[in-house]
Structure formats: C-alpha cells, structure tokens
Amino acid sequence: MRVTVLSGGIGGARFLSGLRRVLDPSDPITVIGNTGDDAWLFGLRVCPDLDTVMYTLGGGIDPDKGWGRDSESWRAKEELGAYGAGPVWFGLGDRDLGTHLARTHLLREGHPLSEVTRILCARWQPGVRLLPMTDEPVETHVEIDDPETGLRRWVHFQEYWVRLQGPVAHGVRFDGIEVATAGPGVLQAIVEADLVVVPPSNPVVSVGTILSVAGVADAIRTARAPVVGVSPIVSGAPVRGMADRLLPLVDVPVTAAGVGEHYGSRTRGGLLDGWLVDASDAGCVAELVSIGLPTRAVPLLMTDPAATDEIARAVLAMADAVGGR
Amino acid sequence: MRVTVLSGGIGGARFLSGLRRVLDPSDPITVIGNTGDDAWLFGLRVCPDLDTVMYTLGGGIDPDKGWGRDSESWRAKEELGAYGAGPVWFGLGDRDLGTHLARTHLLREGHPLSEVTRILCARWQPGVRLLPMTDEPVETHVEIDDPETGLRRWVHFQEYWVRLQGPVAHGVRFDGIEVATAGPGVLQAIVEADLVVVPPSNPVVSVGTILSVAGVADAIRTARAPVVGVSPIVSGAPVRGMADRLLPLVDVPVTAAGVGEHYGSRTRGGLLDGWLVDASDAGCVAELVSIGLPTRAVPLLMTDPAATDEIARAVLAMADAVGGR
Fold first, then answer.
1. Which of chain A's residues have a Cβ under 8 Å away from the Cβ of B39?
2. Buried b vs exposed e over B94-130: b needs ≥16 C-beta within 10 Å?
3. Which chain B residues contact residue A95 at CB under 8 A?
4. What pTM does this model have?
C-alpha cells in the first residue's frame, strides 16, 4: 500500500512515526512537507518542518522539545548573543547548524531543495520519501500589531511564532505561492497513492500552505485513494502550536468539527473521505456525518508511541471503511 | 606614539600581543590585517587572519593551536562530516561559527568588512584598531599539481594550506587585487604613524598581499616614520607556516637575509629602515648593513610572553636607533 501524507512539523512527524511502525516496511510512505516555515537566517537556509520530519523519523530528534537535534548544544548561538547579533531568538543549535550548513552549501551549488532533501535524508534514512511541497521559495508571513511600535505589520512566520510567541494575528499570506509549482513527484504521489492522510498538523500554516500549491488541492479532490484526516484540535484547543490564533483568520471555529467542515467532504467538493476527532469531541460526530463527512471519535493525544500507533491504525481502519472514489 | 603594524595571522598576532603589553596603553596601535586568506565556506564569510588577531588580542584564542577559539567544540563540523558534505577540512568550530555567522549577517545587511570588523571587535576589545587591508574581496590562490589528477591547477589559499598542507607551489596570485582599494583609514594609518612595523608574518601571502593593495607600498616607502621589520625566517626555515614553499615563487631565498633584501632598504627604494633577525642568523648582519639595511640579531622565537615582549622592545629600540625619514 502506498501512503501519501501532507505534513507540517511536530504533529505530522509524530503521526508519521506511528504510521511507519504500523505499516509493513514494504509499504512506501511519501511525505509532502510544508516549506512555508522556511527562512534565511544568517545566510543559512532553515527548513524547520522538513527537518522535524527527517530528524523524528531518522532518530535524531530532541524527544522532549519535539524539534531540533538530540543532545544539542548552543555554543554558536551563545557567541551570536555575545556579539549582540540578531536574530538570536531562533534555536540554532550546534548540531542543527551542521544540517543548515550542508543544505545551504548544496543549494548554493545549484541543487533544488527536493534534491538537497534527498541527499540529507540519505544520512538519516527516515523510512519515508520526504518531498518538499515545492522547490520554489514560499515563505509564510503573518500580520500582527508590532509589540514595540503598535503598528500593524507583516512578519515572517518564524518571527511570529518563535520570537513573538504567537500574538493575535490579523492576516496570513504565503509569499511566493502564486508562482510556486509542486515539487518533483508531489502531484504524482497523490494521484498514485492508495491512501492520502492529512495528519494533525496546523490547518492554516502547515496543511493550508501545502494545499495552496498549484494542483495539490485538485489532486486530492480527484484522487482515487481515500483521503483521511486527523483533527489537530482536541477539546476546542490545539494539542500544540497556535492553530487557535490562526483558524479565525480563515473563519474556522477552533473545534474538531470546525476544522473537519473546513476541509470538507469530497462528496461535496471538499478534501476528505473520513475524519478522526478525539474521543472528547465525540459530540460532533453525528453533526459531521450529517453533512456527508464520515467521522469517528478515537483517542487522539500522541502521549506515547503506543497511543500514536493506535491513531495510525485508526486512520487505516477509517480508510478501509470509507474507501476511495 | 602611534604604531601601525601590517599583520597576517599567528606570527603577527603574537607579536602584537607583546607590542600591546610593552607600549603605554595610551599609545594607539593600528593593525592593517591581511584579508587574502578570506574565503566563503558554506555560505559564510571566513576571515582567518583578522580573527586570529582579534581573538589573540581579545583573549579568545586557542593558545595551543594559535588560531580559532579557546575551549572550542566541533559538533557542527561533525554533522557536516556525517552528511558527507564538503569542505570539512576547514576547522569550523562551534564557537568560531558564531563569529562567521555574525559577520556574514552584517555583510549581507550591507556593512563593509571594515565596519563589520569594528562591530565584532567591539565585543573583544583587542586594544588595537583592526583595519582590513581592503573592503573589497581579495582571495589568494596558489598553483599546485593536483594530488589526485596530477594536473596543474589553482586552488584557494585555504585549500592549499589547510586541506593540502602546503605542497610544492608553482605560482601565487591575489585574485581581485587589481581593483581593490585600501580600506578606510589604511593609508592614513601609515602616513600618520610614528612607527610602522612589519611583524614576522609570511612575506608572500600575508605581508605581500597587504603590500599589493594599491597605495600601501608607496605609503610605506614615503612614510615619515621609521619602518622596522622582524624576520619570519629563523635559521633558514619559517618559525611556522609555509613561507619556505612560497618564497621561491618570488625568487627569495628562505633566509633572514633573503627576506630582508626582498623588503629592501628605504634608502634604496625599499620598505625598511631596520631589520631584526634571530640571534642564530647573526652571520648575515654585516652583509645586510653593507647594502644599506640596518640589521640587528636578537632572539626571535616567541616561546612565551616574556620572549615576545623582548622582541617588541627590540623593535622599539631599533626604531629609536634608525629614526624615520
């Protein structure tokens, strides 16, 4: 069985680790990774979501933080602070820097991001094929009230989230998305899949970014495989991250039902054939089923590998139940 | 007294530490630093000679190696090696990376190298004014027989020295030197100095590079201050470095007398008013004096701070003895 997953960072990566364990090793998994978080920092190209997937599945992740390298040190960053050089709010660990340096070197040599990602993954052997959603630069920006000046302005997503810790947002845009084309293999991975999964990643700035790449949403709407989603909202709040700050920007209630309706049923022009909500949100199942979206309530907190594996199994069971087109 | 010193890396930096201790703190020292060693590595601008001077005088140097940061770690570099990414032969320490990242960030913001160096030195407080010889990129290349292909080719000086460990050289050139102009304050520092010193740095790829910048050699030839040099060759060999490999390229014997003659006496169109050779080379003093170059033989091995201070004192004494123009 060929499975294709649209993934952001931590939530998607953890789900993928369960999926990889639950599936047979011979079942190929393709990950279409969000690159809207990517940024240039100190002349280095940083790809947080791609790296989180690569490190998590390759055994190099910091298991406590959920991002960055295990056994990390911060000596280069301390030096940057000693120089008073900005931006020092971004977590540039010494080991992580090795990845950014290697990636930037390859990009400067002329390799597209998809090829660079393949080369980096050759070391980590994540057990999935990790495809950037696009080789073109797309950078997510968020409109905020500047905490210092009070003036409304657009900031890079990394500044919004890491530096400013997710203040109230007035707008979100994906700079570069109009001219970005799907990366090599991305559309084909959706068309040829036996199952497409929307994991518990941010619907606006992770899945939403991937869906904004030309052709991706249409490929999902018309895919022959079942498309199953997992709610990132549990009991009216994101499990982690700042979806509660960003969902209102696209007029979506911060509820499992709201996100399910946002993605919509493929029978009615939407994206999903099935939707998983947390057991605590079981109350919305009937409502969603009534609008044509088969929904099941199962425990969705990825508290440990066993719980994560159960979610992956629930996705596979849902796919069996709903079938494709 | 205003002292201006033309400096390469380790030899110049160690001499400067002695000079700084020996002079009154109110006597300003200006260092014209070689930037021909500079390189782009993984998208970062690396300035080895400037950093060696800054770290040595600022108390951040690795005292054993003589270059790079004290208490250094190499985790980013280990990661680069794990990716199979090149070039990993260059010693990119984690702490040192902080300097390269800060510098590259400032350069990309549009600051010239002289301004960037001033900002970096604001942290280290080296006790000297450190001026890059030029703000324009100049990169030293050396012609070698490629050890893998046998073909003759030009390599960056860092590759020649750090990666290939100084093989036989067939040529040396300073790429960019034709269009490089002296950095802000460089010529003025020579014109206004009360003493100009050529420390025991490599005559070809350190001092030679600085002297190749338009206007520098002429400013030294016509300076009102005495110009005193210290031989980097002791007993027919460089104290450290690869001057023995490079001096033949400019037809200079690898001897203290040879380098003294190469720089030449200002009374005969050269650069020096006085020349210090090691006590072991005392046999050449009469010969050099006979061609118009006042020369003294004193211990020149900078084995410890006290010995280094004595060399600085010998330079000051020589300057007193020979006077300016």
1. none
2. bbbbbbbbbbbbbbeeebbbbbbbbbbbebbebbbbb
3. 75-76, 78-79
4. 0.90
